[in-house]
Write a structure and sequence with these properties.
- The structure holds 2 protein chains of 2 kinds.
- Chain A is of the alpha+beta class.
- Chain A has helices spanning 6-16, 26-37, 42-52, 56-63, 85-89, 92-103, 145-156, and strands at residues 77-82, 116-121, 133-135, 138-140.
- In chain A, strands 2-1-3-4 form a 4-stranded mixed β-sheet, with helices on one face.
- The termini of chain A are far apart.
- Chain B is α/β, with parallel strands linked by helices.
- Classes of the chains: A alpha+beta, B alpha/beta.
């Protein structure tokens, strides 16, 4: 069962309806698939192709370009240690090597129990908080080696409910009630919007 | 998350960061209490053309990196072609850059208001707000703000009871630096691999999203728009310097005592103020000497001690041989291994090359591999010349501004750190090649991994 389930499909349809061209929903839908399974399965990609009316190859083509999409299972907790220039200057490599030693895996690998995956990633825009990392895209700032040990222990002990499982990004989704939606115009042709003639007298 | 110390250090002038010190400024209630959506209300009493005129008068430069005037860009839309779109570039990923994320997280309504005003002024049919995939918290804040704004009638159908109607759709990426390039952003938004389109002849303003006229503006650029409408373009142009009006948000990081994100007035501040000043960076750590600093993001040629008194404005920094780019200042002290720092930046570009143009796809990878073998102690005597030769093939003449053999500037950007570092610290590279190495190897794979 790794096609999109009923709930994912409901959200997918909401998302698709916000774009004049369905294919624009491809990246958000891949995120949904990853949220559901923790990674993007081949079946999910085929399903997305069906929904959007594109070929599975097109879906794979897009999916394989972006590094957040994992096409094989990864750990429940994806640990991304930043090694951008600011973090590099303040000890990112030491932190990454410490993470390798602590987790007993190399960068790019997953622990045998499927709990942690480790990656060195490019700048995650928290440069004043160097060295920093993200666990499932949640920031941890100015991380020392002992902070790292503590973090790992807290995760193992189930004390980090603030960090959702891998694949979930924003906990809040955009909701637009049908009566508030301005409406999507077809790409082929639309009229000049009426407010462009607005003279400012009537408000 | 503990609030970073710099949050309370903001000083005048506050245009884009005025609400950063307010804990709940991201909520609609607090935004409304602090002059929020007043600019939109005012704009709706003006004609769209008048609103556009105010932005032109402000001479607001794009804050993404290239520094092109936003009002002029807006003027490139062809007449009588609809639909036309606004795409907001929130794919901030330039190493050292750290401003759009804070704007998204702390003041999302300000950005939304800026988007609405742009759509009103230009008759744009729909707005897509593209937020970098890794910024989960920023996505939450924007989603929340949009949900509130839709319900309260600030976004969507018949905004504030008028005939002005526009949707703002939150879209999010999935990890690719190149998508910050505006045509790659459009490709990504269309559901494709994020590879830049060839331009000229057609720029997004004439042929953009879905082949229709499209304005692509940076988060910080649009966050300035509410202030401009509320206070007038002329008032805005009085702030800053003649050719760089207003303020700019700079992120100062690396070996400084007080790394932080600061809004400063263009032209009145120098790099020395920002790096050494008490209000800002507070000097180099441990009383160390400065070795080099990056003035405008990883793509910018490096500056050194003698550039500290260059004032922070586009034209002077351009003349001095670099750029303000994305407003990221990264400071390296005397303990920095310049060869490793150089490798770090080059590895970034080699990993992030989209692979469309051969000089960049091959060149950045070669540069990274050569630097890696130098650090690993396997460097050859002619490797320095080889590095410069590859640089010359990516960007002929290794000049500034760089000449391009590629569709977008990513490839030539990898040349900047190498040419700067070798020119200034050639002996450090030579030492790596001639002396036996005892340090650890470059543990992190780059390029093709």
């Amino acid at each position: 069962m790794s096609r999109l389930n009923e709930e994912s499909l409901r959200i997918a349809n909401e998302i698709i309806n916000r774009y004049p061209i369905k294919k624009s929903a491809l990246i958000p839908l891949l995120h949904l698939a990853q949220e559901q399974e923790g990674w993007v399965t081949d079946q999910a990609m085929r399903h997305i192709a069906e929904i959007l009316g594109v070929t599975p190859a097109e879906v794979l083509g897009t999916c394989s370009f972006y590094e957040m999409f994992k096409r094989s299972p990864v750990g429940e907790y994806q640990v991304n240690v930043c090694h951008g220039i600011s973090c590099h200057l303040l000890g990112a490599e030491n932190l990454l090597h410490h993470a390798e030693d602590t987790l007993g895996i190399k960068e790019g690998e997953t622990t045998q129990d499927g709990k942690f995956s480790l990656e060195g990633v490019e700048c995650i825009a928290a440069c004043t908080e160097a060295p920093c990392l993200q666990v499932n895209y949640r920031y941890q700032n100015k991380v020392t080696t002992s902070d790292f040990n503590e973090l790992v222990q807290e995760i193992i002990d189930g004390e980090r409910s603030d960090i959702p499982k891998h694949g979930s990004l924003a906990k809040v989704r955009q909701n637009i009630s049908p009566e508030r939606l301005a409406g999507i115009e077809p790409v082929e042709h639309a009229e000049q919007p009426e407010w462009l003639n607005r003279n400012g007298q009537d408000s | 998350m503990v609030e970073p110390e710099w949050a309370r250090l903001m000083t005048f002038p506050h245009i884009t960061t005025s609400r950063w010190e307010i804990e709940d400024a991201h909520t609609l209630d607090r935004y409304l209490e602090t002059e929020g959506y007043k600019a939109l209300t005012k704009a709706l009493t003006m004609t769209p053309a008048q609103v556009h005129e105010e932005v032109k008068k402000a001479s607001l430069l794009g804050r993404g990196g290239a520094g092109f005037p936003a009002g002029v860009k807006w003027g490139f839309l062809p007449e009588n072609v609809w639909p036309r779109y606004l795409v907001v570039n929130g794919d901030e990923s330039e190493p050292g850059t750290y401003k759009d994320r804070i704007l998204l997280e702390r003041d999302p309504h300000q950005l939304i208001e800026g988007c609405l005003i742009a759509c009103y002024a230009l008759g744009l049919s729909q707005c897509f707000l593209y937020v970098r995939g890794e910024m989960a918290h920023g996505q939450e804040r924007i989603a929340n703000a949009l949900n509130e704004a839709y319900e309260a009638g600030y976004v969507g159908k018949n905004i504030l009871g008028t005939e002005f109607s526009v949707d703002i759709i939150l879209h999010w990426g999935a990890g690719a630096y190149i998508v910050g390039e505006e045509t790659a952003l459009i490709e990504s938004l269309e559901g494709n691999r994020g590879m830049p389109r060839l331009k000229p002849p057609f720029f997004p303003a004439s042929i953009g999203l879905y082949g229709k006229p499209t304005i692509v503006n940076n988060v910080e650029t649009l966050s300035n728009v509410p202030w401009i409408v509320l206070h007038g373009g002329e008032e805005f142009s009085k702030i800053g310097s003649e050719q760089s009006t207003g303020t700019r948000i700079f992120a100062v990081s690396g070996h400084v005592n007080n790394p932080g994100v600061f809004e400063v007035e263009f032209g009145t501040t120098t790099f020395r103020d920002l790096i050494m000043g008490d209000e800002y960076g507070q000097g180099i750590r441990n009383g160390n000497q400065m070795k080099a600093f990056i003035p405008g993001g990883a793509s910018a040629p490096w500056f050194f001690e003698e550039h500290l008194d260059v004032s922070l404005e586009k034209s002077t920094v351009d003349q001095a041989g670099s750029m303000l780019g994305s407003g990221a200042i990264v400071v390296m002290d005397e303990t920095t291994d310049i060869v490793r720092a150089c490798h770090n930046v080059v590895r970034f570009f080699s990993r992030e090359s989209c692979g469309k143009c051969a000089p960049c796809r091959e060149g950045t990878n070669w540069l990274e591999k050569i630097l890696r073998r130098i650090i690993d102690g396997n460097g050859r005597k002619d490797d320095l010349d080889l590095l410069l030769d590859v640089c010359d093939n990516i960007s002929p003449g290794i000049t500034w501004p760089p000449k391009q053999t590629t569709i977008c500037p990513l490839g030539p950007s990898a040349v900047s750190p190498i040419s700067s570092a070798i020119k200034r610290y050639r002996s450090e590279f030579e030492a790596y090649v001639t002396l036996p190495q005892t340090g650890t190897s470059v543990g992190i794979q780059g390029g093709t991994s």
